[in-house]
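Shipment paperwork, digital attachment
Item: protein structure file
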Amino acid sequence: MNIDYILAIDGGGTKTLAKLVNLHSAEEFTAQAGAASVYNDFNTALTSLQQVITSVCAQSGAKHSQILAVMGLAGGSSKVLAERVTASLQLDCDIKFAQLGIVSDAITSLYGANLGQPVAMLALGTGAVAARLSADGETKLIGGWGFSVDDFGGGARLGLSAVQCLLDEIDRFEQPKSLLTQQLSEQVGREREQISSWLMKAKALDYARFSPLIFSLKTQCIIADTVLSEHVRQVERLIEKCRGQSQLPVIIIGGLADVTIALLNENTQLNLSPRQGDSLAGAVILASDRIKQIEYTRITQ
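Attachment content:
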């Protein structure tokens, strides 16, 4: 088995990033596509994966059989979903790698955040998940159970809270009253039938798209401020659960990282460390480690 390339993929609830690296020349090829949460929308995720794989292979001329791939996917911690991705890529997309490893995007984020060194990491994006990498190399996931039951601290939950405020005002006053809910109603609706139609179709990403609006209205709208206060409480609780009794450095990454950090209490902010890398960097680290393991096995046999 000749492996000439490593492929790193970061598939989250909003976008998919890919980096293909030629192991001989170090030349890199990149691609981007839409969401790749196998938990929230498997078919969309598969389409995004196929798009980025096809793109980097076309750019490089690489064959699937020459590639060792590591994918960090939202929902990738599920063995059932990971096996389904592998099977679907092979059977539906005719993509079969020399080796393929699928893990949660929280794990690739964990390795990327501190470049493979011990850390307690929170990833705040469409969803929210934490992970811990101990000095002995042990990893542990905290949270990230999915939008339907968890993901507190993520953009989808934040948007859901805002929509719930809209529904509350419709029930109580028959119209949106706050600045936030008035602007939400322009997209969700003001009448029960219109709102119900939106709710039936809405997915996690649809709720997450309201996050920028909520943050922008923090100082102008008491409802936005209240929703964000609960968001901050949830993030601080996730930090406590992730760090546990350890003294590990805490790093927050993801699309909501910077805007959320600015709202955390001063002591929490002082205990945070700067991000060293991202989920894609973590996937590259994991793929490179696998290459080293293969080389070590080859040499010692």
